[in-house]
Amino acid sequence: MKRIFLAVAVIIILSCNNTRVMSASNLNEYGRTEQVTDTFIHSLQQNNELVLAFAVETYAWAKTISYRILVKNKNEWKGYNYFVSITGGGSQKKELVKVSNDECNAVWSFMQSKEAWKITGDKGEDFCSGAKKSNCNINDGTTWRLLIITKDKVTDPSYYEPAFFEKCCPGNEERKLFLEATDKIKHAVPAVNDEE
How far is CA 88 from the centre of its chain? Predict the structure, then answer.
């Protein structure tokens, strides 16, 4: 019994240490010291050790943001679907969804092993390079964001239509990693309603 208790204690300490290591060193170098401005995401930032989120922003006809969110606190994970409409007076819809601790731990392990917080994004420009550039065009597309948030640090690389441009002009290794990371969050957080 003593050994089981000791093993559990070591696992908990190591797991918490992994979050602190990212928070204290790697994210310090790559993350910005700030609090997020969205009130719901801000509350998640304040009340959890770690927030991982995938967001899709639309701007064409109505400004909306759809999030799939994982939060970790005391070795337990929760998932959320969160939708924000900024046009027409604005509205929000939040839904807690059931997630697997094992799958969420795998997502976080992937982020750590690939150092996903180092992804810089495309900053809304230079989607393609070389000869294919003129053949790759999309209008009124969406912007995808990957958020890695601790209590005091934020990284949030974004890409304009990354799946489209990855097919049209592959070869951007950071964009490819970005797509892998966002895909892992999408699979860990079940979609609701009409989402894919």
Answer: 27
Tokens of 146: 């990957």
Q: Which helix (H) or strand (E) holds 142?
A: strand 142-149
> For residue 176, is it within any domain?
yes
Place of tokens 């393609």: 128
Distance CA 123, CA 121 (A): 6
122 within a domain of the structure (yes/no): yes
Residue 194 lies in a domain: no
Give the domain extent around 113.
2-130+138-188
Is the distance from CB of 82 to CB of 93 less than 8 angstroms? yes
Which residue matches tokens 């999030």?
67
SS3 188: helix
Rg of the Cα atoms in the chain = 18
Residue 196 lies in a domain: no
Check which CATH number belongs to the domain holding 57 and give it. 3.30.1560
* pLDDT-based confidence at residue 20 (cuts at 50, 70, 90): very low
pTM of the model: 0.81
Give, to the nearest 10 degrees, the angle between helix 173-188 and helix 101-114.
170
* Per-residue pLDDT reduced to its tens digit, 61-70: 779 999 999 9
What one-letter code names the amino acid at 110? F
